[in-house]
Amino acid sequence: MNIRVKQNKIPFGTISFEGQSWPCAVGKTGVTGDKKEGDHASPAGVFPIRAVYFRADRIDRPRTSVPVFEISEKDGWCDDPSSAAYNRKITLPFEDRHECLMREDHLYDLVVVLGHNDNPPIPGKGSCIFMHVAKEDYSGTEGCVALRLDHLQSLLGQISAETCLEIMLP
Length: 170
Known about the structure:
The chain is mostly beta strands.
C-alpha cells in the first residue's frame, strides 16, 4: 500500500497510510504535474522510498525496513542542474550549488529520500525532493512533503521497503 499525500489549501495537505492520517506541508506553490527546479511545487506522482537519513546527535535511529544512514557534516545534495552530480548525494565541500543535510534548524533531523527524477536525473526537472520534518506552522516547502517528527517516525515504523509515496494532483 502506498503512502498518499493530498493537497488541501496550499501549502497544507494530508498524508495517509493504512487508515491513519496526519497533517503535512507541501510545496509553497502546491502540487504540480510538471515539476521544474526552483518552482517551489511538490511533484505529482508515485515515488519509491530510497533511503532514510537522520541526525544521530538529535534523535534516535529510526525503526524502519528502509535503509537508514546517519547524517554527517560532509553530507549534502546537489541541486545545480548544470552539475554532473545533479540530484545526487554529494560529499562536502562541493563547488556546485547544493544543500547541506546537516542543518541548523530541525527540518532535516529525519529525511526520507524519494525516488523523484533520479533514474537518471534530468537537469531542471527537480532535485532534493524529500519527506522531512515540518516547520511548526506547516508552512510550505521548496517542493518536499513535511510532517511532524513524531508522525514521520510513526509512519516510517509502519512501511516496508516496497512502500511508495504518492503525491496526488489536487
